[in-house]
Amino acid sequence: MLNILEIIIPSAIFFAAPLIFTALGGVFSERSGVVNIGLEGLMVIGAFTGVVFNLTFADQFGQLTPWLAMLVAMVVASIFSLMHAVAAISLRADQVVSGVAINFLALGLSLFLVKMWYGKGQTDQVQVGFDKIDIPILSKIPVIGPILFSNGYLPSYLAIVLAFVVWYVIYKTPFGLRLRAVGEHPMAADTMGINVAKMRYIAVMLSGALAGIGGSIYATIISRDFSHATISGQGFMALAAMIFGKWHPLGAMGAALFFGFAQSLSIVGQAIPFLKNVPTVYLLILPYALTILALTGFIGRADAPKALGTPYVKGKR
User: Fold this and answer.
1) What is the pTM of this model?
2) Domains of the chain: which residue ranges?
3) Of 223, 269, 222, nearest in space to 7 by CA
4) Which of 29-33, 100-104, 148-152, 287-291 has the lowest mean pLDDT?
């Protein structure tokens, strides 16, 4: 049994990491009152940018390359998310339509550039990635150490730590109070001197930054290249994790770990005795089936921020 857990748990954690980053980005955006269906497209931009940067600069930066690629992906996706912010906040467009447009634009633009730069439908394979590590001291703990803190990727552990940081920021800081205020009652927040549009712009750009990190990590650790199928539903799973987690950072992390576990079974299932006879196709559809079940059957009462999806017009109720 321990051997099985040592296969499943580390795999689940690193599959969950991109979902955690992206879901936390979604929490920022939707807590401010802006629906962000475009998380999938922002992950695509992050994956594309991360892989292209890695392939271009691997010789110059060596082992630093994947970290720098992650930072560049964060910046590019954050800037890309500005289009959604302008449409949803300044132009008061339908936020769902704007998010869907971001998804199509991101995929079309990235594939066009891949075709133009590489002359084929996908990039080359990334050769310099994140190294697996054992967490000092923690990895030596009997039973738990080998399962949770050994043979893992540092970004996976950073994602879990970030969930607690985001919880603290949203619930324990003045910035977080303002963010929640503009998502619940923007007119009251405006009356208190909070710049609603500014807070929402910051939140949407933070969602872009975190989704870009998520996409970059997914492409660098899991797919190792970029093509039309690199990000195939992970952004929507992150969105589902955010809703399943009831717009709470720690809830979103827990839901992302659950979906990561389902994704890991589709990859490592054949190495697990009681799953090796299950047809692969069932394991592949498992993450998406569990996503639907989680949202329809087990979520319970989940109250979205009251002003979610509603453009704010100053002075208008």
Assistant:
1) 0.93
2) 2-129+152-297
3) 269
4) 287-291
